[in-house]
């Protein structure tokens, strides 16, 4: 074995570690000497964009994170909210973009594994997985391969672990041709008084490693995630980790079994930057030191160096601090589940991370400097110019435009994807994929959680501030449409290179919009992740701040769903349609243009309309509801008709051109259906409440008819909607 | 009716099976760890779905050799009604308690959806509350559900009434659309679809209930 610490640190080595010369000098200053090779590696990952949030922190601090029901906000492994009756929901979303582009199956699979660990680390049993996926345009030669691999990876991991993958969203756009986005979210349930945190405590207490053995996979994953892509990025395949969902399943069961005792003081999963980041974070939060003996780290490969052990991102590993004397009991649990268990160190009062190997000290760093001295940049940012309002032309043939839209890549059914995910295991999925939000019962109760992931990158690209607002508002609306009360969000902020002022401008704009929406809707951010440098050869992705919203339903029997339920029901539109076709999916898909202002989000109206609709569902007046988003009124009507196999006859007035009525993406709108007498009451209640409402028509028949503008059979709509993706993917085989 | 659910490392439908059994029989089943060598004197044994041993080697192959399986095989051969669902079915074929094998789905993809089944046998312990030819809706969730056996075995299974359920249409390439089979004595059923997932309207339907009531009504 070569002694890596004898390698002389040169400017090239510093650069290879993704550190600037100034950052290196900062390390030398913090340490009071030159770091050795292992120490340099540790600093480089701790100070990477991925781990240190050095470009984003200054802006993230401005986001609202508090509410009376928030038990734990950002900063821990995941966010925690109170859902009553002594129970808590724990959730987070995280990106695994670069690995998934290089190796889609393993990249996506380990993305799921990582976010599951973030959630069960805190004591929760994971109950639902979600995802938010962005691929390049369908015509791009890699799109099929990436889509197939990512979906198979997400399914391969989640299905085996036995946590249902209950929904998500998928977009296609050329801006993701060279940089797909794979964002995975997990929601778990725990007792509110049994939440586990990561702050280490108790000098002399044992530091314990459990789970899989450490190998050489994933070294420098965090550094890779903090750099732009280039054409040779595929050579980085060895930096992609390999997942083992079977071990993860055992790890979940073993950890939850140990958590039922009182042995654990602190626990943290080994995610990005592996052993290094988990031990530094635990020690830093507890204000203590760690002394680790690397000889005791369970190893999968021979002759691993300290550098490799510290930076490996091998999956399915956890680090814990146990109460003294509980090691044997804990070990018995992990042995029952056939997992490694090793005491690898102890807590010290030095405030330093001290690494020994072969009887020698191979690394010795002040923990505070690894965390607190990390650079924080206020990078220059220029706002995206506000666009001009435009008039968007009508299509040559409305019927054809409708079929092209719901039968195209943007709005077609995602059934091909979610039928590859076990979305029913655990026996509590009562709102399956394909609706506005997934709904999962809180096991053994009448309560349920609604979950939705959303963002409209077109809007964020056109006007970051409005796009940021809209992303938050859309999850809020999707949860509301099932009857759930939206409680909090997690996010995954995917952007390009922050060193470019226009990209940083997008980031700042989106965050301002998100913050305003969260405040107006009492809908705080409790966890999240930032993924920058989503660029290939200098071309950035559309700004994509994916939002994962979680809401609570007290009585899941009242849940509303999208499908029309019966003939002869009155269809009401809640909210008012305006001429807002700028940056719409109609404009993009049918006209091939992207101009004009995106729809503007009026947060007061959003709240008023949403609260009104939710009350209708909660008090049992309505069980059929769909929010309006991409594709506007006609896309929503088509969804409801296809899902219910029931047609509808509606009319629109002449205040706007037909194509505007049909395709406008004005926000804060919902469609509901109810028996005529109930609908009459609702109509009056809406008027009294100052909520815009209009009677659109009635359900029934086998055709969707809008005045004399649109007439399409359910059979034709269904065929268009369902066939696009299977046909597209079959063309690859 | 006393029942036992065998839990292997990687089982993940064990809780769902327990919930269904408790709901329909009124009694919590005993959960039995695979490393054990014996369990209570029960009336009914269930091998749940999941990915025991991660489906590594071959689905069900390692679980079939778990310590508890010697006891399960002994009791099943002695006539204790035994149900294997999904991975449980795979384990039953690996133990040779049931003939045939479950291969990778013909389209090579995992498939999770509600599928229509036709009831082919309405006289067994597990199916008497259904009627022959009845169409029921039960979900599948598997990657390896493509049932294979040689022609002679298939003829015998069909001729002797040992085919319990067929898929109404092809979903995984299974020979003769076979979704579930019984042993020759009729006390062992293996099936890929998940009846324990269809026990309540809010979960998508109740067509799975009759399977459990059949067992309950037979055993009392």
From TrEMBL, chain A:
Gene3D superfamilies: PurM-like C-terminal domain (3.90.650.10), PurM-like, N-terminal domain (3.30.1330.10). The active site is at residues 50, 96. Its main location: cytoplasm. It is found in: Cytoplasm. GO terms for molecular function: ATP binding; magnesium ion binding; phosphoribosylformylglycinamidine synthase activity. Keywords: ATP-binding, Cytoplasm, Ligase, Magnesium, Metal-binding, Nucleotide-binding, Purine biosynthesis. Pathway: Purine metabolism; IMP biosynthesis via de novo pathway; 5-amino-1-(5-phospho-D-ribosyl)imidazole from N(2)-formyl-N(1)-(5-phospho-D-ribosyl)glycinamide: step 1/2. Its EC number is 6.3.5.3. Residues 75-189, 434-553 form the PurM-like N-terminal domain. Part of the phosphoribosylformylglycinamidine synthase complex involved in the purines biosynthetic pathway. Catalyzes the ATP-dependent conversion of formylglycinamide ribonucleotide (FGAR) and glutamine to yield formylglycinamidine ribonucleotide (FGAM) and glutamate. The FGAM synthase complex is composed of three subunits. PurQ produces an ammonia molecule by converting glutamine to glutamate. PurL transfers the ammonia molecule to FGAR to form FGAM in an ATP-dependent manner. Monomer. Part of the FGAM synthase complex composed of 1 PurL, 1 PurQ and 2 PurS subunits. This is Phosphoribosylformylglycinamidine synthase subunit PurL.
UniProtKB/TrEMBL annotation, chain B:
It catalyses: N(2)-formyl-N(1)-(5-phospho-beta-D-ribosyl)glycinamide + L-glutamine + ATP + H2O = 2-formamido-N(1)-(5-O-phospho-beta-D-ribosyl)acetamidine + L-glutamate + ADP + phosphate + H(+); L-glutamine + H2O = L-glutamate + NH4(+). Its EC number is 6.3.5.3, 3.5.1.2. The active site is at residues 86, 194, 196. Pathway: Purine metabolism; IMP biosynthesis via de novo pathway; 5-amino-1-(5-phospho-D-ribosyl)imidazole from N(2)-formyl-N(1)-(5-phospho-D-ribosyl)glycinamide: step 1/2. InterPro entries: Class_I_gatase-like, PRibForGlyAmidine_synth_PurQ. GO terms for biological process: 'de novo' IMP biosynthetic process. It is found in: Cytoplasm. One of its GO terms (cellular component) is cytoplasm. Signal peptide: none annotated. One of its GO terms (molecular function) is ATP binding. It holds the Pfam family GATase_5. Keywords: ATP-binding, Cytoplasm, Glutamine amidotransferase, Hydrolase, Ligase, Nucleotide-binding, Purine biosynthesis. Part of the FGAM synthase complex composed of 1 PurL, 1 PurQ and 2 PurS subunits. Part of the phosphoribosylformylglycinamidine synthase complex involved in the purines biosynthetic pathway. Catalyzes the ATP-dependent conversion of formylglycinamide ribonucleotide (FGAR) and glutamine to yield formylglycinamidine ribonucleotide (FGAM) and glutamate. The FGAM synthase complex is composed of three subunits. PurQ produces an ammonia molecule by converting glutamine to glutamate. PurL transfers the ammonia molecule to FGAR to form FGAM in an ATP-dependent manner. This is Phosphoribosylformylglycinamidine synthase subunit PurQ. It comes from Kordiimonas sediminis. The gene is purQ.
